[in-house]
Amino acid sequence: MEAATAPEVAAGSKVKEASPADAEPPQASPGQGAGSPTPQLLPPIEEHPKIWLPRALRQTYIRKVGDTVNLLIPFQGKPKPQAIWTHDGCALDTRRVSVRNGERDSVLFIREAQRADSGRYQLRVQLGGLEATATIDILVIERPGPPQSIKLVDVWGFSATLEWTPPQDTGNTALLGYTVQKADTKSGLWFTVLEHYHRTSCIVSDLIIGNSYAFRVFAENQCGLSETAPITTDLAHIQKAATVYKTKGFAQRDFSEAPKFTQPLADCTTVTGYNTQLFCCVRASPRPKIIWLKNKMDIQGNPKYRALTHLGICSLEIRKPGPFDGGIYTCKAVNPLGEASVDCRVDVKVPN
Length: 352
Known about the structure:
mainly beta, Immunoglobulin-like, six-stranded mixed beta sheet, five-stranded antiparallel beta sheet, 49% strand, elongated, repeat
């Protein structure tokens, strides 16, 4: 229930005296005859009528369709004045609007407001030949209707141009603008691209090459967005531009080279029964073939030795060498451009 926050006189409320023609003549009591010389006097006015209009009602009072309107308007006057409500200068429709008048206030109640309830309501407080008035403007609003149509005007590059017409029904209040959304056919999800937009045409930019887009537009007022929105019948196809790449000719560099050892084999001494490894590094292109020799004899395929080559690193593992495994070991690299070799001496000692 609306209540006054402070005793403030309404802007525009006024008190006036009735003309002699409006004043009611004294009424004769039942016990007096028509020709009685002493008429009954009206009670004296102790307090002039005055209306205290709450501050919130001094501007247009806005409600949504279906909301309850419950206005409490305090007034003064003694003895109790008569309070009369009118809607746009006419009597209230008692089927929709109810009024309760008390000693010091009057209540206007509408259970479910409709747009037809909008208008100017006037409260008149009368006491004898005096009268005070206050005016309240009530506006009942709802969501607007959708824009009547939307059209895809043009598509170029990464952008599309749209046009639409305003809705026929604005919801009994001014529009706050339009909300424009886009959806690509791949995902089908709608994304907002413009909000509170006031024109009836726009350009949507930053569209993705290769996608096709649909668009829709909502109208918006104080109650929110329209419940539905028209969708473009044509899709905006963002075409891929035909791009031809021209490569500049360049001379192919020849990386071929004959084998060359960047790290030679190192002489070593080992003990009988303990595995020993030999390492060296070679560079060549194309990839060379690696051959291991012992005392100038090929040892490829001998299970006592395991040879590995990875990224130019050559290794030879001598498994549990014996006294006769000592000698000169050679690593030879061969490719079509040439060959290279390195060697080392391996001594095997018997522990004491």
